[in-house]
Specification:
ADH-like_N; 2 domains; 12 helices; 15 strands; Quinone Oxidoreductase, Chain A, domain 1; Rossmann fold; single chain; alpha/beta
């Protein structure tokens, strides 16, 4: 088969790779029908995730058709159309028993495209398939479903739920890429009074408004003054970091009100300064996290019921054979206007 193989920082290739086979009774093998590229994949290529070994197939977001299952798989059969979760879960360890699948101690967590071969390929092996796949209803398209592999549950769990967004809150989302836009979309489920997007790209600020932001401002446009003007000088109730840079994180801690929440989603490859000389007295809660995907089934039901509209998220479409071009377009989003790119058979 063909697959997108990581060759080390700055190196990748769509090339021949060994077909996946069932290696554990709990495995499923899928034919990949639709797959997307994540900002985390770009971080890997920059060298920010050194655990990824050269030779690894990248990718952790896909929709596919089951072609084979191990003897321990009970909930899936060949022919089933499934969403492959970005998180794999053994289901029996201490963390899995509490729904904290991202911290799985039994060989799961974020492993696809990280510590084992991922899904940017024609076929893929999915460990712990019963818990790590979701059968899809016919009414949900591949293109919509693949957005639930990672960005929707990540933004919802690590941003909105960790940030404790509540009705009437002022919410600031720093970074209006796909994760930030998904955070805006899911924050709106809780009826905040204001949602403000911060991003240097005007095109992404316009996209943020289409997804439900009430206002948009660039980092150079004095976001602190904008937030204070809307909150009587207090600051935001919840600030969500969706970039993964020191400057973005430090801006978040400036924008939050005393007693507020900063929810960090971004993948950080460099240290960020925590200004405790300012924050120690403000009773601020700062959360970090890897998605657990415990909300995926709920989000899937909402998508099926029409309560989540993700139709504007995908901006570029490619065949599976065009991975090199898809990465170029996604990685140069400031010029291409790319939000999510989807590659399909």
């Amino acid at each position: 088969m063909k697959a997108l193989v990581y060759g080390g920082p700055g190196s990748k290739a769509w090339t021949e790779a060994a077909d996946p086979t069932v290696a554990d009774p709990r495995d499923a093998i899928i034919r990949v029908d639709a797959v997307t590229i994540c900002g985390t994949d770009l971080h890997i290529l920059k060298g920010d995730v050194p655990e990824v070994a050269p030779g690894t197939i990248l990718g952790h977001e896909a929709v596919g058709t089951v072609v084979d299952v191990g003897s321990g798989v009970t909930a899936l059969s060949p022919g089933d159309r499934v969403l492959a979760s970005c998180i794999s879960a053994c289901g029996t360890c201490r963390y899995c028993r509490t729904g904290s699948y991202g911290q799985c101690l039994g060989g799961g967590g974020w492993i696809l495209g990280h510590t084992v071969n991922g899904v940017q390929a024609e076929y893929a092996r999915l460990p712990f398939a019963d818990l790590s796949c979701h059968r899809l209803p016919n009414t949900v398209s591949d293109e919509a479903a693949v957005l639930l592999a990672d960005i929707l549950p990540t933004s919802y769990e690590v941003g909105v739920l960790n940030g404790r967004v509540r009705p009437g809150d002022t919410v600031v989302v720093v970074g209006a890429g796909p994760i930030g836009l998904a955070a805006i979309l899911t924050a709106r489920l809780y009826s905040p009074s204001h949602v403000i997007a911060v991003d240097p790209a005007q095109a992404r600020l316009e996209a943020a408004k289409r997804f439900g932001a009430h206002a948009g401002v660039t980092p150079d446009g004095d976001p602190l003054e904008v937030v204070r003007a809307l909150t009587g000088g207090l600051g935001a109730d919840v600030v969500i970091e969706a970039v993964g840079t020191p400057a973005a994180f430090e801006l978040c801690t400036m924008l939050v009100r005393p007693g507020g929440h900063v929810a960090n989603i971004g993948v950080h490859g460099k240290p960020a300064i925590l200004h405790l000389e300012d924050l120690w007295i403000k009773d601020v809660t700062i959360t970090t996290g890897l998605v657990d995907t415990s909300s995926t089934a709920t989000l899937l039901r909402m998508l099926e019921a029409g309560q989540l509209d993700v139709s504007q998220m995908v901006t570029h479409r490619f065949p599976l054979s065009a991975f090199e071009e898809a990465y170029r377009v996604f990685g140069d989003a400031a010029d291409t206007g790319a939000l999510k790119v989807v590659l399909s058979r």
